[in-house]
Amino acid sequence: MTDVVKMRQIEKAFGANAVLKRVDFTLEAGSIHALLGENGTGKTTLMNILTGVYTKDQGDIEIDGAPATPASQQQIAFIHQELSLVNDLAVYENLYLGHELKHYGGLRRREMIATAQAFVDRIGIELDVTAMVRDLNASYKQITEIVRALMRDAKVIIMDEPTTSLTDVEINDVFKMMRSLRDQGVSLIFISHKLNEVLEICDTYTIMRDGVVVSSGQVTPELTEVQLSNQMVGKELAYSEIYQPRPLGKPVLTLKGLTKAREFQNVDLVVHRGEIIGVTGLLGDGRSELFSAVVGATAFDAGQVLVNERPVRIKTTADIKRYGIAYLPKNRKENGIVPDLNIEENLALPILGRLSRGGLINRGQLTATVQRYVKQINIKVADVKDVIGSLSGGNQQKVLLAKALCTDPSVVILDNPTQGVDVGAKAEIYHQIMDLAKTGISFVILTSEIAELQQLCDRVYVMTHGEVRAELPHGDINERDIMLVATGGQLD
Amino acid sequence: MTDMQTSAQHKQRSLKGLIADYSAIFAFLILFIVAVILKGSTFISVSNIMNILMNNSIIGIISLGMTLVIITAGIDLAVGSQMAATGLIAMTILNATQNIFLAIVAAVFAGLVFGAITGGLISKFGVPAFIVTLGTMQIYRSVSEYCFDGGGVLATGRSASAFTAIANTKLFGVIPMPMIYWLALCLLISVIARRTAFGRYVYAIGSNKRASFLSTINVNRVLLLVYALSGVLVALASIIEASRLGSMNSASSGSGYEMDAIAAVVIGGTSMAGGRGTILGTVFGTLTLGIINNLMNLLGVPSFLVGAIKGVIIIGALLIQRSVSKEES
Predict the structure, then answer these.
(1) Could you tell me which residue ranges the ABC transporter domain spans (chain A) (predicted)?
(2) Domain annotation covers residue A31
């Protein structure tokens, strides 16, 4: 097979900070290639050099056997985690955005629709190009973005963690499309932290660590997730040892018959002191909606929330601190990050009032508090006064985790807590959660990652269409049962 | 790649960053130099400089509150008519009771209530700030005109001279008191913006309202307080204005002040999208506008053309700012 991309001895430094050190990267035509590595290890920088966003300091790039030119770099499409679609336009309008077919200034709508539909049909996707993008589910938004790249003659498509915000069904849609593209000769670079997906979909892989390539090769049936993650981290990960049975206390958070029309029905749930519970299911299971109502971000219709076995009324998110509840919402960018505040202020946002003396924020105490968490959960940060955007995604997530913990809560609700976090940092976060649980803090973890549930949870609630359908003790948490219940089946 | 190259690059960047951060100060300095070149000794004279500071302290005080409002990604179009309303309340009470203290307290209280109403409508009912204040702007002006039949109130009685002294006294015979009030309020609001939890919440809400709400910030209360604080500052400005002129007019007082205040804030580098801005920037934004007005007065530009030239300079200043901060990012 021929190589569509060949990068040799690439070097790149930002200031004194060498980000890439003599990196070689090869992509075969018509293959799916996994680019793996922890957060901040240079993967995105390498891809930005490939697409011409950054200039390299040293090294050669060949595209299709010829030295890279701005024109040939145009044929490499980078699809970022944050999609760049306009929700209020139809699919075909998005596909032609900026490249509309015109006739004396008027749009040739019919022709655009026909051409776009023919293109979509030809690559074997079921998608109505006249549908509005806002009505598409997350996987079809992703697919629309890929189609747009293909319509502009992309030869190589780079996908940066495309599956983090997708459910399993949606992931299958995206994978189906990736396979069909590969069979049509398009090459794909797949950046992901989900190693099971890598083994499932990729043909070849490259693993980076601290700006160098540590290994690359074929994805063979013998290759395991553990082998990959060990190479990424550079040490053996002690994953299975995370879970430790602990004595549990009285109920701290109880939900009784919680109901909201069309979102969740009659949910009963209990969390004991020091307990870690998981809540899982597929898209539309209502778990995020349920807990966003519990913390007062939205209202519910009926039922009761009890803290320490006493009914409470939480009207708005500002009330939860009083009851010792902390909440880390999903979707870091929309719901978590305050881009104009620095790292320190983002982390301590909920307790700025508490850190004030005579109305003024005590800067010394603020920095001391923040430093404690930076050390405790190992946030890689040069200066806590830098803007939050200077951190890698995984470290931003750690800041938000620290933000939830800094209120000294007794119950912490974490929605998708390891979103975009690499394996090494994931293990660190799991250890942190387990250690905190030992001190009596309770956790509610909303996730669709089975491994996460297995490593952390004392009990798991499985939800389907807004109802709790099963409750599994630690020993019974397994993928088969969870999927069975989540897809509407019954356990024997 | 040598170390020298990188450090040179670094220096270049930080210089541009400096210009971007303090673009309002640079705009001000450029205009100042232009003014000195064009009108030399007349412009730079102590009396002219004091004149500029005096004339702009009222807009200056109003724009302090406006800065916080705009940092929350809001806007307050009602400050001009609110100023007429609170000023008229102060004058009416002053004439009726001859008690200066009571007049000031009444005006400040009224400003607080007006601001809280605006803030309440915006936060509790989610009506866009532009719409709410477009409405309150008309209501305050119209009710004021109705109550005073389109006319004004003159300070009369034995306390009148003491009241007019509030704004017309000069410290050491040189520095007009309004300037001192302005400076004091600048320091106060700057400390609130930078050093208090409330101030940081103002920035947080403008930057990402949803994340702020989910971070257990009481967003509605912070928004209500921001507009209430702005209302109080407008009331203080109205007392200075009333004192300076010895009268308040229901039809003309404060008319168009909202536009000058918004212009000062925007020239000062505050983002209309919220989340970013400084009090220092706003102060220099106000001074920049002040110099433009003063210079055109000195140059004898026909008064009907002043608006056009002002508009061109405002847009020009913003374009320069925009291009510098773009290069930086």
Answers:
(1) 5-235, 237-490
(2) yes
